[in-house]
Here is the input.
Amino acid sequence: MSTRYRAGACALALGAAMLLPAAPASAQFDFSGEWVTPRAVIYGRTLSQQFEDGPDRADGPEMGDYTGLPLNEFGRRKADAWSASVLAQPERQGNPHPAQYSMRGGGGPNLRITKVIDPVTSAWTGLRMDGFYNGGNRTIWLDGRPHPGQYAEHLWSGFSTGVWQGHMLKVTTTHMKLGFLRRNGVPSSSRTTMTEYFVRHGTYLTVITILEDPDYLEDYFVRDVTLRWAPELVVGPPSIVDPSDELGDKPLGWVPHNPPGTRHTEFAERFGLPFEATRGGAETVYPEYQKTLAELIARDKAARSRQAQEPAR
Amino acid sequence: MRPVGTRRAVLLAAVVALVLWAGTARPGAQGQVETLRVQGQVHLLAGAGGNVTALVGPQGVLLVDAGSQGATEPLLAALRTITPLPIHFLINTSADPDHVGGNAAISQAGRPMPGWNGAGVSGAPVFAHENVQRRMSAPGPGDPGFEAPFWPTSTFFTGKHTLHFNDEPIELLWQQAAHSDADLMIFFRRSDVISAGDIVNMESFPVIDLARGGSIQGELDALNRIIDIAIPRMNQMDGTRIIPGHGRLCNEADVVEYRDMVTVIRDRVQTLLAQGKTLEEVQASRPAYEYEPVYGAEQGAWTTRMFVEAVYRSLEGEDARSRAAR
Here is the structure.
């Protein structure tokens, strides 16, 4: 089996495994309510640190950290050229997180999921999800409506439809804007298709996300997040960003970017990793890469050792 | 010294190819035209060549661009699914055949608004910048141009012209030397929609038509002007909508991405030019590399190489003008 399909197969197997222990009689399941990412509780004290995806939820990843991302060369080069200073453009300051990223980013998410009910027929037509960063909130339509055509606008939230598979909800999202997979410039193109599986286990909700990006990925991008039911949570309205002038004398149209050939080596140096291992790619996604990584580390170690033994010139 | 004759021949060939390609009804142009309600009184009709914008209200219809010559019938059929009211105005955003090819038939399918002071015009008046008229009536070498029935009937040479129709203030904003020297952006102030013509093209790198007065800096100025006008509703969502010359509907955030892409490529080519690199060396460095999967093409009327060459030639020209001025 090619590596391209292994991630998808793994995700489906994981989804199926999660479904088996509590197969319900009904074909739909209620996800409505407030949900929060579980925080670590040590000795009865709740820490602000989340269990998972810390760099995505909090400070953000380091430049050049593409580890475990199935980036192709186009995506890698786009990430290398990205400069965080671009976020100072007034016309970017209020950007919500794109749907490709929002489920595991933005300090949470702290979600409120509500049913969308047709006011006339009382039919359950969708699920509304509020609480995403800067208001990139989503609606998952359950009424069988088609996705928009090729000329329709792309949104931060994309356009999502869902179908029930037992009590697991399969959601397909298209029409997303050009977004990112990590907040260090790793791109996710607007032609990406996102497939999600929502599974509830009592007071926990697991969401498995699979991205197919024909432009910037060479394999499936697969992640899962688990949320805890949190009836005490109050999801407020999104922050409305009032863009301010952070550019000083820079005119409209100033676009900071790194020149071609930029090497973000800081991350590799800080964690003692071979530079190649930080560059992502399909092979870095799979467990077999550990062997390659060990070989690369041994190679680098030997090189350093040789350098140390060479007489100073 | 570079062979000027060869350069001109390449540019001429590119223009001819563009004209032939754009004037030909492409797949979809003869078939289904997709209609999409944008917001306010504005609709998008796509699939008839270049995108067509329709302002539809109680007074009738104003169209921005007329699609390709062979696509008038499906275009009018699609318009009739929106309204039975007559076409009273047509505006051209450029002289490109996929935007003006339907001028004659669309104009004749309409009629002047009652009371309109357009002596001698039987169909709907056709507005454009005077450079559209110039390009269509006195085309350059190798450009077939258009016969008189296709020409605009009402042109202007100033930076801005205004109309008021369907209770909608409409600004026709001339953008000098962008995609060409005849570009108009049409701003529907009440509906909050900009019809941008080929200044924005979501299906390719912007066509910088040097032979028709386009330039990379003018293209960037035009994109920045759109960003300056557009106001998102909240956090870069919704708000002003921008209808591109080709491809999907946008809001400001999409134009910002497009502007950034064009700027990054311009900066790279400019750096290489300043280092004395030849066009061949610039092409070899692939300055548009990471944008190629989204906007690039190896074949067709506007390839990635043609775009990079246009950026290079445009900057080279600016550089020469700047040196001459010193």
